[in-house]
């Protein structure tokens, strides 16, 4: 089966928050719940960079590992989902999550957390009927053969969603055709590379594609 | 009409041709990117400083309305490892080990019986108020310990046995009981600690008591006042580790004061370690108070202990009570079980 992944191309993200809005609209999440967020580093400086983050559907998901109720499960597509009927709102998944994905409606007394809510990769969750599923988890676009709405609506196609291999192939291709070595995440000092065009023969492009592919695989 | 048609066709041709020319000129720029130009516009180099920002959240803004999160929560994995790799198995070893040690001790040494026959004369040891406080605290402690253990290890047992629906209700009830009874336990523990502070101040003979192993091996009965060294140790464990448990518990119980994720992680780790220590030691307390010592449970059940028991386990207290009685022969502890008298009978 496929291994579903999100990938946000920071080079393309323009911090429009379209993904955030699309997600909110597709899933009609509760007041105060925003499954996707856009983080901007160095806002307003020349080095400004933005990236859209939500649940990354980890292979070795920390939320699953620490949940005292074992309400999490992984679908055949590698999507991490959870059962809100079993969730007790303890907050452990939030403590463990690297991406701040789990959120809790706080409407109970003394700030007691409600049932956890997070990105489902638009794959819904366990429920008796489609109506109940939508009510609890939001859209199940995967069952309709569609990708998550955040990625589908991304205006610059910075946010990619889909099978990990396809997504990383698209990204790798972009990096190669951008024609510079630090297009991905490799720490190359710009100043020391004033002009790399001389080296960009066809063979060197191929060679670079290979090394970048290696680089992407190595650095995640 | 015909002239107009020709003109418009010509226009289309011109537009098409100009597009062709334009694309020829644009082609090198659009198709094969100019690397040096690209580098000039590219996202900044990812250096150590960038990763520090990703980790610490400095100079970063987040579009989530109330977010105080950094981009990547690095401490989450640390907490996960501490909880799942150390606290969870460590707690199992601590609790299981304690039970095993007590079982072996019971089998090898057996109950600490009274050396002499009961005198039939009773001494007031715990007033009704003290017993009520003790059993309230004990009940809350047991419920919190059982629910806490269920939160840590229950998922490995009950869901497989009873299925999803039972497990969902069980774990929800567990969380509610743990969260709502926790503050009550905190208040009770503080009250009990305050009430019994004066009885548990360490004395010189307590160290001697420990040196002699508390008389756990039969035949030895080191000096002990109203509270012996072991009871005082349990008191001070409750006053230290117990305080860690209730403070960390309250921090987690009321997540409305802006506690950060990192604070919650550390609090949770401390809460787990401290409460597992407390539960392990409580096994010892429960053993000594029930199966381990003849006549100990009577004191907390009825409030009175036999004079033989008092002489054997708390000789200094016994002596003091007897001296007080000699000084005031009117008082008879067996018929006047009130708090004022109880205070009078005590060394402090």
TrEMBL record, chain B:
Main localization (coarse): membrane
Localization, UniProt: Cell membrane
Recorded family membership: Belongs to the formate dehydrogenase gamma subunit family.
GO molecular function, one term: electron transfer activity
Upper lineage: Bacteria, Pseudomonadati, Pseudomonadota, Gammaproteobacteria, Oceanospirillales
Cofactor(s) needed: heme
InterPro entries in UniProt: Cyt_b561_bac/Ni-Hgenase, Di-haem_cyt_TM, FDH_cytochrome_b556_subunit, Formate_DH_gsu
Name used for this protein in its record: Formate dehydrogenase subunit gamma
NCBIfam families, sorted: formate-DH-gamm
GO biological process, one term: formate oxidation
GO cellular component: formate dehydrogenase complex; plasma membrane
